[in-house]
Specification:
- Strands 2-3-4-1-5 form a five-stranded parallel sheet.
- It contains 14 helices and twelve strands.
- The longest helix is centred in the middle third of the chain and has 20 residues.
- Helix content is 40%, strand content 14%.
Length: 392
């Protein structure tokens, strides 16, 4: 166990400063079993270590980070390790890569039921369905989701600002005042395109090629997370990758399931399953008509965030498509988004119709809200597009 403490202290000593304050404050840390899901590359490991550093500090042995993908756990059980850690005064065990460990949900349940003075925080892939597919954890685990950076978080990091997040309703009601306050100290649109290109995943802070890093992350998500968790045979990986590529060429698009099934040489049912897996993996977003959901066919499919659009294709993606993808991505955290049927693209929370437009040229319907790209401060039903990046 001392070897794990040494690794823990080394990692804490080399942390960056990307504190994800939003989720850190959102989590109820009094819960004894906390699961944090997120897509590969969004910083789940860093988030665990930042929690350890902020609440316990580098020299405190009451909190310990472990990775269940370590060879050590091929010979030792999680139950034995957690029991030993607790016996030595441990209070909080932070567990990374939990899905790589056999019987992980059963052993977590055992620890929860028998080590009542030990808190466990673990990370898992976005592909996992913690409660639905793991009945051992039903009613026991508090589940949270770590997303990539919002535009607000990116802006605060790059410009050294400290702007707060706003709810969707606050943006609708007070967008003029909020935009004026932001623009009084900074020009947000000066950072906006960079965010769309490379600001969603934390590794834009690393001194490596962002596009290559993101492509590797996407392939790892498909090869490890999706295939392993969904128990898909390796020989079907090429079909899954081809499906994602074909979808990306025309996004946003209405998936032609029959044509896709012919192109990747599989059944319509398998295509629908694969599309759902890509959504679970946070590769794509699916837009449905009001009142509909999977397994119904989606009305429209988007890449999960604009960064993915730039690395998937050799050509620069269409600007309106990038803007719609951004809007959809930033709103899905706490809002319901459907296809609108009233001369607009999106229906938000069942009552607000939104259209994404490049500028203020043209005529505007007073019954529709407009998210405007080339705008710093709006008015009435015209809201700057960048401001929807302040929702978390």
């Amino acid at each position: 166990m001392e070897a794990f403490y040494r690794t823990h202290q080394y990692l804490l000593a080399h942390l960056g400063s990307t504190v994800r304050r939003g989720l850190m404050d959102e989590i109820d840390w009094s819960q004894r079993l906390i699961g944090i899901k997120g897509s590969r590359g969004v910083g789940k490991t860093t988030f665990l270590l930042l929690y350890a550093n902020e609440f316990f500090g580098p020299g405190n042995k009451e909190c310990l980070y472990i990775n269940l993908n370590h060879f050590f756990f091929t010979d030792r059980t999680l139950i034995d390790f957690a029991g030993e850690f607790r016996a030595q005064g441990g209070k909080v065990l932070l567990i990374d890569q939990v899905f790589k460990y056999p019987e992980w949900s059963r052993e977590l349940r055992y620890c929860h039921d028998h080590f009542t003075d030990l808190r466990i925080v673990f990370t898992g892939s976005s592909v996992m369905r913690l409660k639905e597919e793991n009945p051992d954890l039903a009613g026991k685990v508090a589940s949270y989701y770590l997303r990539g950076f919002s535009f607000r978080e990116y802006l605060n990091l790059m410009a050294g600002t400290d702007f707060p997040a706003y709810s969707f309703d606050e943006v609708l009601k007070n967008h003029v005042a909020i935009a004026r306050e932001v623009c009084a100290s900074i020009k947000p649109r000066a950072y906006f395109h960079d965010y769309l290109h490379h600001g969603f995943y934390p590794f834009f802070l690393e001194k490596r090629n962002y596009s290559e890093n993101l492509l590797k992350t996407m392939n790892m998500t498909l090869e490890v997370d999706v295939l392993y968790i969904k128990q898909i045979e390796q020989r079907y990986l090429t079909k899954l990758r081809k499906l994602l590529y074909l979808l990306s060429l025309h996004m946003p698009c209405t998936p032609n399931v029959s044509q896709l099934s012919k192109l990747i040489e599989t059944s319509r049912a398998t295509v629908m399953n694969y599309i759902k897996y890509l959504q679970d993996a946070r590769m794509i977003n699916l837009l449905y008509a009001p009142g509909e959901e999977y397994p119904k066919k989606p009305v429209r499919a988007y890449m999960y965030n604009p960064n993915l659009m730039y690395v998937m294709n050799q050509q620069i993606p269409d600007e309106p498509a990038v803007n719609e993808t951004f809007f959809c991505n930033q709103l899905i955290k706490n809002n319901n988004i459907n296809e609108s049927n009233q001369n607009a693209r999106f229906l938000v929370n069942g009552k607000y119709h939104f259209q994404i437009v490049p500028d203020t040229k043209g005529r505007f319907n007073p019954d529709i809200y407009y998210a405007v790209d080339k705008m710093e401060i709006g008015g009435e039903n015209l809201i700057p597009l960048w401001l929807f990046g302040f929702l978390y």
